[in-house]
Write a structure and sequence with these properties.
By secondary structure, the protein is an alpha/beta fold. The protein has helices at about 20-30, 75-90, 105-125, 140-145, 175-180, 190-200, 235-240, 265-280, 300-320, 340-350, 365-370, 390, 405-415, 420-435, 440-465; strands at about 5, 35-40, 50, 55-60, 65-70, 130-135, 155, 185-190, 205-210, 215, 220-225, 255-260, 290-295, 330-335, 350-355, 380-385, 395-400. Helices cover about 45% and strands about 15% of the residues. Helix 3 (about 105-125) crosses helix 4 and helix 8 (about 265-280) crosses helix 13 (about 405-415). The longest helix is centred in the C-terminal third of the chain and has 27 residues, at about 440-465. The structure holds 6-O-phosphono-alpha-D-glucopyranose. GO terms for molecular function: alpha,alpha-trehalose-phosphate synthase (UDP-forming) activity.
Length: about 475
């Protein structure tokens, strides 16, 4: 069997904060094994790391092999804080006013990917399956091909694909298209993302849409499909049921939100909606509290510092207005919470708020559903901007973060929903979350990639055959 080699900027390393990508892939890698290659600006911080050739260390201690490609810290900042998170992240999340393009960001982004390609190429065996993750590594396949790598290479974008109009904000957009085309299979979260990608390619005369559904850009043929990412639902359900974490006081109704403190998550809108709820539903004052967990992230980027200040101010304002001696309406935690505690808190909360302004999938929506007690489940309030909306939107309550009053009314409806309806909606969502879990996601992607690999092997055998041996059609 071929070995799976995963490449992503971040990988699970002890105290590293984890977003959706690491959580999902770690679940997949722990079951199947393989090699995970990440990027590390400062190898000294890695406990137990051992030298592994030029610019690389290996990090033992997991159920799979881990290698960190070591890069200079200042170039890492220009690549990670700069091009990845000040150009591509706002671009993909439609926050064009936050894009900051600098030539040295792009240069560092390309240089780090070239350096990473050299490390990956050194570890790669001819029959390995290579799966690259996320916007940090758009040029990696091109850099690997330049190193002579011929393996099948898959790519999965965890965040939304930019729209056909927004893509023009990127300087050198055709290079970006050409980077993408060096992959054999490009996985996106939703059908909506696939439509955006098709619209983007359609704008360029070098694109050709082939009869078998694949795409040709310049001299490369590749495929773009959606593979909605899942969670290890059975395990999370289990952790939630066993967790000892408690929301106190129990007599109160609880609303929960939990994410990285990112401007794409719509947190200010959510706090405003909660304030509006307390203002309009006077009976709820003192009876419902909102626990918002927002773990700090990318704090050296200005936009993240600003959103943090805004949230502190907003939660202070709502609390100042509605608090009482024994009542704090908003409990705002600006830090992460361990996964087992989080699972228990989700299980106890009456309402889970997942109301981003833009989001690739949003695994919290799925975790909230998985964590619920099927006999007395809470209600998921979801925005149409989360990728999860494509799978769960029919059964969740839908809130529009751009309409604060509508969102407040939706939260009120969630708090009032009768048990029977809660069970019915939850059952439908739980089925989807359990069936389309993380193993289903990685298997579907890897099967599709394997099919591409076999297809192109077959073609290359055909090309090598003398003309009279070819099968005519
Ligand atoms: C999102 C991205 C991931 C990223 C995670 C955490 O889920 O898709 O690629 O790892 O956020 O962000 P960070 O910048 O801390 O790695």
């Amino acid at each position: 069997m071929s070995r799976l080699v995963v490449v992503s900027n971040r990988m699970p390393l002890g105290s590293n904060p984890s977003g959706g990508l690491v959580v999902a892939l770690q679940d997949a890698m722990e079951k199947g094994g393989g090699l995970w290659i990440g990027v590390q600006p400062d190898a000294d911080v890695l406990e137990g790391a051992e030298p592994a050739g030029e610019n690389a260390v290996s990090v033992p201690g997991a159920n799979f092999d881990r290698v960190a490609a070591v890069v200079p810290a200042s170039a890492y900042d220009d690549y990670y804080l700069g091009y990845a998170n000040s150009v591509l992240w706002p671009l993909c999340h439609g926050r064009m006013e936050l894009i900051e393009q600098r030539p040295h960001y792009r240069a560092a982004y390309e240089a780090i990917n070239s350096r990473l390609a050299k490390v990956v190429a050194r570890f790669l065996r001819p029959d390995d399956i290579l799966w690259v993750h996320d916007y940090h590594h758009l040029p990696l396949a091109a850099a690997l091909r330049a190193e002579g790598v011929q393996n099948a290479i898959g790519f999965f974008l965890h965040i939304p694909f930019p729209t056909a109009a927004n893509i023009h904000a990127v300087t050198g957009v055709e290079d970006v298209m050409s980077w993408i085309s060096q992959y054999d299979l490009v996985g996106l979260q939703t059908q909506r993302d696939v439509s955006s990608a098709m619209d983007v390619f359609r704008q360029f005369p070098d694109s050709q849409f082939l009869m078998d559904g694949s795409l040709r850009f310049r001299n490369r043929t590749f495929e773009i499909k959606s593979f909605p990412i899942g969670i290890d639902a059975a395990a999370f359900r289990d952790i939630a049921a066993r967790s000892r974490a408690r929301l106190a006081p129990r007599a109160r109704r609880w609303i929960i939100g939990a994410e990285r403190l990112d401007y794409s998550k719509g947190l200010p809108h959510r706090l405003r909606a909660f304030g509006k709820l307390l203002e309009t539903e006077i009976d709820l004052q003192g009876a419902v509290s909102f626990l918002q967990i927002a773990s700090p992230t990318r704090e050296d980027v200005q936009a993240y510092r600003e959103i943090r200040e805004e949230l502190e101010q907003l939660s202070g304002a709502v609390n100042g207005r509605f608090s009482d001696i024994n009542y704090t309406p908003i409990q705002y935690l600006n830090r992460g919470v361990p996964r087992d505690r989080l699972a228990g808190l989700f299980r106890q909360a009456d309402v889970g708020l997942v109301t981003p302004l833009a989001d690739g999938m949003n695994l919290v929506a799925k975790e909230y559903v998985a964590a619920q007690d099927a006999e007395d489940p809470g209600v998921l309030v979801l925005s149409g901007f989360a990728g999860a909306h494509e799978q769960l939107g029919q059964h969740a309550l839908i809130a529009n973060p751009y309409d604060i009053e509508q969102m407040a009314r939706t939260i009120a409806a969630a708090l009032l929903m009768p048990l029977e309806e809660r069970i019915e909606r939850h059952q439908a969502m739980l089925r989807i979350v359990m069936e389309q879990d993380v193993a289903w996601w990685s298997e579907s992607f890897l099967n599709a990639l394997e099919a591409k690999r076999l297809g192109s092997e077959f073609l290359s055998i055909l090309k090598r055959l003398p003309d009279h041996d070819r099968v005519s059609d």
